[in-house]
Write a structure and sequence with these properties.
mainly alpha, 57% helix
């Protein structure tokens, strides 16, 4: 993007405002951005839970009926089944009402990922919002963000307290159960599922689905929530593949000329140094090159921590978002270092 052209609104969201800004002003901007991100996550989580009851999106197995935005959605082949339409008309209906909308939705979703990476994961995904919430509860219990971490990670003045263990375990079980119930309501009438549950009259199949799914999701939240986001989520994988194919896509750029400053990097939240590493909820190393940041969800927490550390020293941050031609320059610098 030429320097005399204004950034697009989505790009401007991730970049500093034009002109020099004080470290404290930039830190306030990033803090507002994080509050916006968490607000979007909370709103989308509520939408995820309420969508089946509002018929915003669900497939009713009892009626073999897809509901979209409160309306019944069909392929328009009922007339053909009744002998009132030709095979050609039925084929056109399937293409126009089924294939084309699905392709348009997929292309639009991947176009966003092509430009801005796993934006859905970091800013909307209900599962990732749980990852961050459960990370915080586990850290309060044992000082780690994952049960597989080799050592505790200091976080401000927080000291691990065993009283948080029951809340962490209960939260994993509760969200696992809620996840199972919600997914079932995407397939069966929500009023029927919740009514049977509250009345204790679940059918054997409903009870089996809820029981097995609750155990699976609870185990995933306990032991593998980061691994699922990085390696097991098809939605995240396709976003990452689209993003990696675009050298102009949004990246977290690192000023390697000032790498020495990172040795003394610390914040009140990350007093042990390497603040950006400790802030990443995906357990990545944000100063790595793009191909090693395949699972980055563009949450910006590493940038916020970097800015916090440098603001205390009146320095510009070592990490910042780059998009467009600035991202291409970052990619070229990475390639030069690899040669």
């Amino acid at each position: 993007m030429p320097p005399d052209m204004p950034a697009s609104r989505p790009a401007a969201l991730f970049q500093s405002s034009a002109g020099p800004a004080s470290p404290s002003a930039e830190l306030r901007r990033l803090a507002r951005l994080q509050r916006l991100r968490r607000g979007l996550q909370l709103s989308f989580f509520a939408l995820f839970l309420a969508a089946p009851s509002l018929n915003l999106l669900r497939f009713d197995l009892t009626e073999t009926q897809l509901w979209v935005l409160g309306f019944r959605w069909s392929l328009g082949i009922d007339a053909f089944l009744r002998g009132e339409a030709t095979a050609t008309q039925a084929a056109l209906a399937i293409i126009g009402r089924g294939i084309l909308p699905a392709v348009a939705l997929a292309v639009g979703f991947l176009a966003v990922a092509y430009r801005w990476g796993r934006l859905y994961c970091g800013w909307l995904c209900p599962h990732f919002s749980l990852v961050e919430t459960l990370n915080d509860l586990l850290h309060r219990a044992c000082g780690k963000f994952s049960l597989w971490d080799a050592h505790p990670t200091p976080r401000g003045s927080r000291q691990p307290q065993r009283r948080w263990w029951p809340l962490f375990g209960l939260s994993c079980a509760l969200f696992g159960f809620l996840w199972a119930i919600t997914l079932l309501t995407y397939l069966l009438p929500p009023a029927q599922v919740w009514g049977n549950l509250l009345a204790g009259t679940l059918t054997p199949n409903q009870a089996r689905f809820i029981g097995i799914a609750s155990l699976v999701f609870t185990a995933e939240f306990l032991f593998a929530r980061h691994l699922f986001c990085r390696f097991g989520c098809a939605v995240g994988l396709f976003q990452s593949l689209a993003w990696m194919a675009n050298p102009k896509g949004l990246v977290v750029a690192f000023d390697r000329g000032r790498a020495r400053d990172c040795r003394s990097c610390s914040t009140p939240q990350s007093p042990a140094g390497a603040a950006c590493d400790q802030a990443c909820p995906m357990r990545l190393k944000p100063r790595n090159i793009k191909r090693l940041m395949f699972a980055c969800v563009q949450c910006g927490q590493c940038i916020t921590e970097c800015d916090s550390s440098n603001a205390a020293r009146a320095h510009t941050p070592n990490l910042e978002w780059k998009v467009g031609l600035d991202a291409v320059r970052e990619t070229l610098k990475q390639r030069q270092r690899d040669v």
